[in-house]
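Recall the central idea of this unit: under ordinary conditions, the amino acid sequence of a chain determines the structure it adopts. In this exercise we apply that idea directly, starting from the sequence alone.
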Amino acid sequence: MELLQLKYFISAAETQNFSKTAKKFTVPPSAISQSIKRLEKELGVLLFDRRANKISLNSNGQMFYTSVRESDRLLSEVAQKLTDSQKNMSGEIRIQILCNRRLVSTAIKEFSLQHPDVHFVLLHGPSSEEEYDLIISDQDISDIKYHRQILLTENIAVAFHKEHPLALQEDLRISDLSRENFITMLSDGSLYRITQKFCAQAGFTPQIAIQCDDPYYIRQYIEMGLGIGFVPLSSWKGQFSENLVCRTFHNLTRTTYVYWNPSQHSKSVKSFLEVLRRVRENDLSNLCV
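Accordingly, the structure predicted from this sequence is:
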């Protein structure tokens, strides 16, 4: 029973697909299939049910996966500790940033000044990539590989051009916005989901006038008077011009989580998480809206 063989099995168990596992390890799918068959022969039991071109983990496979996954995690931790003890922080940190870019960028700047040999690979949108050291998202991620912690809960406001008739209206309610044009992110973005959610709670479907993948231009289009939009006050702190009015509403908030994979929790990732949390605390203490 070889370590690489077990890593093939773990990946196949998680993807339920030999081809995806083969792509991850850059080997032919036949190599994965043959490796799994040798493992099953050695164990004396089948680990997968095979039907046509589909595979699924059976009860034997589930039991084996639980134990092997934990063993692999422990081995990875030990290997990382040994590596970290022999060198200064270096390598890369892979982060998928789906919201709160400003906060993460501030943390990256501070961390890079202390550890210039660590470089970052950043993605600001959805991806088929399976492996990240950290994920910053307001969505629930059910992947058992990742642990999570609340990074930030912030108020969500509605931004208007300062001359918009509703900008200064007293006792403004979300339902009063049902005839307005909304400007928001693309359909896979956090602000789009927020727009749909809060409008639905108020009993209407928002009229989307503009969708954009750049937060800067979301603010610009609102400032031009082309529509209104839900905006995060903490994440976009300091980026609203004097031509915008942000109105807050009771119970309109967004919670952002930081997810990490404990099996890939290197010294540099752990240190960056500490910086990110410190930046978050400093940011909250200075927040004034």
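Residues 59-85 form the longest helix (27 residues).
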